[in-house]
Amino acid sequence: MIPEIIKEIQKHENKFVGVAFRNGHLHTIKAYGDIFPSPCEGEFEGQIEYVKFVEENENTDVFDIMTASTMEEAIENDILEENGDIF
Known about the structure:
33% of the residues lie in helices and 24% in strands. By secondary structure, it is an alpha+beta fold.
């Protein structure tokens, strides 16, 4: 699933990108056109490392990649919280 995530992040029209893990964990990768700083070192690489970290440490996997071009769509697609904050 990592190659698919990378493709979606790199698409310019996707201003918002998030992932849903099978265990219910939601994570925002890209918001408002920028890759969000990751808990792991490096923005882009850190986001990919964080996804791998969650998969390994929470014994789960990514089952959905959500994308959106507007904030409203991102909220509807569970990429952002209702107030516009990231997951």
